[in-house]
Structure formats: C-alpha cells, structure tokens
Amino acid sequence: MAHRGTFITFEGLDGCGKSTQMRRLAERLREKGHTVLETAEPGGTPIGLQVRRVLLDSANQELSPSAELLLYFACRAQNVDQWILPALERGEIVLSDRFTDSSLVYQGIGRGLGAEAVLALDRIACRGLAPDLTLLIAIDLETGLRRAHARNKRKNEVESRMDEQAVEFHRIVSGAYLELAAREPQRIKVIDGRRTMGVVERDVWETVARYVS
Fold first, then answer.
1. What value does the mean pLDDT take over residues 139-167?
2. Rounded distance, CA 88 to CA 195, Å?
3. Which residue segment(s) compose the domain that 51 sits in?
4. Which of 40, 54, 109, 140 makes the best surface tag, with the fewest CB within 10 Å?
5. Band of pLDDT at residue 154, cut at 50, 70 and 90
6. How far apart are CA 157 and CA 52, in angstroms?
7. Neighbours of 79 (CB within 10 A)
8. At residue 213, does pLDDT exceed 80?
9. Which residues share a beta bridge with 37?
10. pLDDT averaged over every residue in the chain
11. Residue 131, domain CATH
12. Are the C-beta atoms of residues 164 and 88 closer than 8 Å to each other?
C-alpha cells in the first residue's frame, strides 16, 4: 500500500519500556518539525478504547483465544481506518505502540492459533498496510514481568489480564518475537532494552533517523 507518510511501530513484552521510548521519540520528532500521530493498541480511537477495556480487564479471564484475536483486530481495523491511514495520507509520521506483530506472537504463537489466522484477519483489517520500521525493545522476561506487575500494583491497574498469564506463555511470546525479528531483519530492528533509558533512547533515534529526513 502506497502512502506518503512513515509508519513506525514499537513492539516488545510488557514492561520493556517501549511506551516511554515511543513518547520520547515523538517529542524529538516534533522538535525537528515533523507532524506526528501517536496511537496504541489495543485502544487508540474512542471506539478502540471501549474494546480495550474488554480485552484487558482482569475480570475477563474466560475470554477465549479466538474471541481475543477477533477483538484485537476489530480495534486495529478502527485504528487503521479512523486514524492511521488518514495521517499517513497527510504525510505524517505515525507511531504505534503495538500492531499486527503483537497478534502474531501473542495470539498466533502464544495462544496457538497460528500465523495464517492472524494474517487472514490482517488482510481484512489492515488491507496491506504494514510498518515501514518496527522497533523491538528486547528485555529479559523476568525484568519485564517485574516491571509490569509493579506498574499494575502502583496504578491499581485493572487492565492486567494479559500480564497475569502464566510465565510460560510470556516465555513463548518472548522467543516468538526474536524469531520474527530474525525472519524480517530489514523491517524489525532489535533494541537492547536492558540498558539505561538514555542509551536506549539514543539507539532508537539513530535507527529512526535513517527513515525520516
């Protein structure tokens, strides 16, 4: 799909620091005169935020894997149609906290639904839209889970259903992310998220600078 803007996504385990790095990147891009749209999944649009509450509410443990996958893509379709494509058509830089890669590793691999089910829904919801660049903030599983659980406790967070999955589920997802990056090295750039925030921010910027003028 041709577009004039640049679509950059951030991926990684919860607690890896991707949301903070995306926010800092947006600030830096705006300082350099770029128009930037920030969005997140699940969520983004007002309708997407309503879907997010269902997906992440810790009370909804009975949500089936197939229903989970369909809800993520319902949210994504709204985001693509309402926010992402119009911004790209205006020539803006779009930064998204998660996109279809998350569904590939969490639902396709982690839930065992398979990549083809995910890609079939992607064809419907995204209609060929793919990130120009994906930054995978890689961190060890234990640190990521510790940060995510501490954040949820600090904020009294009810949107913790995915964080509360078994450790083995998160271990499978972590490995799936690295396998995905190995298959698509031109698009997916792995950033070592175990280092200090400033060092990670520097690496993010050096990578993104090759894609934006």
1. 71
2. 32
3. 6-208
4. 140
5. low
6. 13
7. 26
8. no
9. 94
10. 92
11. 3.40.50.300
12. no
Q: Kindly tell me if the per-residue pLDDT of 183 is higher than 80.
A: yes
Here the contacts of 103-108 (C-beta below 8 Å, separation 24 or greater) are: 103/69, 103/72, 103/73, 103/76, 104/176, 104/180, 105/173, 105/176, 105/177, 105/180, 106/162, 106/173, 107/65, 107/68, 107/69, 107/72, 108/176
Structure tokens at 96: 């998204």
Residue 59 lies in a domain: yes
β-pairing verdict for 188-192 and 133-138? parallel
Is 1 a residue whose pLDDT tops 60? no
Of the candidates 177, 36, 47, the one whose C-alpha atom is nearest the C-alpha of residue 55 is 47
Q: Which residue has the tokens 């903030």?
A: 137
Looking at the 3D structure of the chain, how many domains does it have? 1
Residue at 91: amino acid letter: G
On whether the CB atoms of residues 8 and 96 are closer than 8 A, the answer is yes
Q: Closest Cα to residue 93, out of 49, 33, 48?
A: 33
41: its two tokens: 């999944």
75 phi, psi to nearest 5 deg? -60, -45
